[in-house]
Amino acid sequence: MARFDDRVCLVTGAGSGIGAAIARRLAREGARLVLCGRREPPLAATAAAIAAGGGAPAVIATGDLADPAPAAAAVAHAKRAFGRLDGLVHAAGDVVRADALATTRDADWNTTFDVHVRALQYLLRAATPLLAERGGAIVAIASNLARIGLPGLAAYSAAKGAVTSLVRALAVELGPAGIRVNALLPGLIETGATRSAPGWEANARGFAARAPLRRVGQPDEVAAAAAFLLSDDAAFITGTGLVIDGGASIS
Ligand code: NAP
Known about the structure:
By secondary structure, the chain is of the alpha/beta class. Helices cover 46% and strands 15% of the residues. Strands 3-2-1-4-5-6-7 form a seven-stranded parallel β-sheet, with helices on both faces. Strand 4, helix 4 (106-132) and strand 5 (136-141) form a beta-alpha-beta unit. Helix 4 runs parallel beside helix 5 (154-174). The site of NADP nicotinamide-adenine-dinucleotide phosphate (NAP) has 29 residues, from helix 1 and helix 6.
């Protein structure tokens, strides 16, 4: 038996980067998947990669998760297609443009909170009844910037801090229903989004110099941790924030 045989997982941000790596990993371990994001083509590419790897056909649910309706629709899709939901991963969210707090536009602040915090609220509200049917697990992708500060990233850090607080609060609230809730706190991970962001080379060099493991991380390394937290191997773990940053935040 693979760890996710018979299980159904919904992964947001599954069209690229960390979310795509998590979806591929869960599929390799037997999960049937609902892939969510705003655009269909990247999600179709992830579904094709899953099929090429011998995974079960994935279902695609498109929509902007900053609005409540697409989050509810994605969960409804899981119920319609598979009749159950065992795991939910919230990895959607654009890499933010760094800006000093004094000049951060209200719209950018709101967008950051909408996709990282509100979307998680909408997803969990919709998914909790289905997850509770068999006991389930939730993994939210926060950031090590929930715990440390970097100039120009106040809105992002505050949103990721809110994600870790929400995870702890919901772990307490949902534990009696058999639902575990955990966060992953990655450091700098090499994705298309981070590679194409301004200053990638300098950022990567600076991060690697600070991190005891002397390099940036890879999406598959975050995916391995997400699969662990969603699986029964983590059956007694809830409310935690697992840092995946090569030690950057403790050095
Ligand atoms: P990415 O490659 O840009 O992936 C983000 C995904 O989210 C995209 O597929 C995007 O697809 C989707 N998305 C964005 N906004 C959305 C919205 N409003 N509704 C629905 N889908 C949306 O980024 P990544 O580097 O993999 O990052 C993934 C997560 O990890 C983010 O939460 C990020 O903050 C977190 N994280 C990343 C790093 C890092 O160094 N990479 C470090 C710490 C934490 P569409 O554009 O098609 O919607």
